[in-house]
Amino acid sequence: MKCRHCGSPLDLVLIDLGAQPPSNAYLTPDALRAPERWYPLRVLVCEHCWLVQTEDFTRAEELFSPDYAYFSGFSTSWLAHCKRFVEEASQRFGLGPESYVVEVAANDGYLLQYVQAHGIPCLGIEPTASTAAAARTKGIAIVQDFFGVRLAQTLVSEGKQADLMIANNVLAHVPDINDFVGGFSILLKPRGVATFEFPHLLRLIVEAQFDTIYHEHFSYLSLTAVERIFSSVGLIVFDVEELPTHGGSLRVYAQRADTGTYPRSIRVDAMLEKERAAGLMDSATYSGFQARAERIKDDFLGFLLTAKREGKRVAAYGAAAKGNTLLNFAGVKPDLLPFVVDRNPAKQGKYLPGSRIPIVGEQKLEATRPDYIVILPWNLREEIMAQLVYARSWGARFVTAVPKLEVV
Q: Residue 379 sits in which domain range?
């Protein structure tokens, strides 16, 4: 395989998680009687441009199906984060009724609802039918398509160039990253700004966040790699922020290289130096990641086996993609984890891919009163523990497995 960005041969392996089904391919009861699609899940490192990427085995259209079940609007902390961003960006870039905002991967309208509330005209681009429909119920205009150069050119021809483009947690999800980013340089107005949020590769490496790896994540991104990719299509990075979301993310600000006017923040070079000092441009940095992930997996599996031997009841909370990576890597089935609770009605009544653990509503916790509740989306641990504080009344303890096993 060659690098998706620069075309260099890929030889360095970050991790091999074996074969797994797509992490968001939740199963209906009828689907339990049919075989599942499993694909190898290996991640490779380009030693030329330092883009970290999954090995190609499937197409995006097979991963982002019409009934895609990930809805962004079910996390209160994430909604607060997005509302705050809209307020800050509106003020910083002088956005108002004469402006135009385009969000790529608008999902269920979780962010554009706040843009709309500010009286700013906006458009969402979202390829999955289920989430696009949810956004439309909020009165948000949606183009249901995958974004890239072709769609950007179509929107420009319709007079829909953007003052602000937003791409939250999607840059890692695109197989043709050059075409995707190229669309931004086309759709932006001459002085427009694009912002991108994505989990930071540095945090993934430092904290062994291997469960954030799944087929839908084609890339694992550093600012070093992102700046090179942007530069190749005529975009300039002019600012960057570190965020606590998703276990540690970056928010990158970019503008057109030919017409942008914002000065380069000192934070850009400081982050590039931080990545260099951490060894992200050193092949040796990536060599021990497999062993660290296997230790986490072994510790988690040991906890579940011990709990079963001791007659303890264990449940999980959050039917998240990262949880599916962990469960399938560890080979966990319903005998060790009988059910997972999720607030999203689109997931309830279905089953986790691979492990086939049933997804149920929150009332199941009160009915069964488990001794341990495993929080699979560990990045939302504090929010979920506060939401489930009532479980303390029967002595329940909360468990996270990544970056290390913790029982609270």
A: 289-407
Q: Give yes or no: residues 80 and 194 share one domain.
A: yes
Same-domain pairing of 294 and 282? no
**Tens digit of each residue's pLDDT (9 = 90 or more) over 183-221:** 999 999 999 999 999 999 999 999 999 999 999 899 999
Residues 136, 244 within the same domain: yes
- Cα 194 to its chain centre, rounded Å, is 18
Same domain, 277 and 294: no
Residue 375 and residue 273 in one domain: no
pLDDT band at residue 98 using 50, 70 and 90 as cut-offs: very high
Confidence band of 95 (pLDDT split at 50, 70, 90): very high
Residue 66 predicted with pLDDT over 80: no
Per-residue pLDDT averaged across 100-107, rounded? 97
Please indicate, yes or no, whether residues 304 and 262 belong to a single structural domain of this protein: no
Looking at 249, 271, 286, the residue that finishes a domain is 286
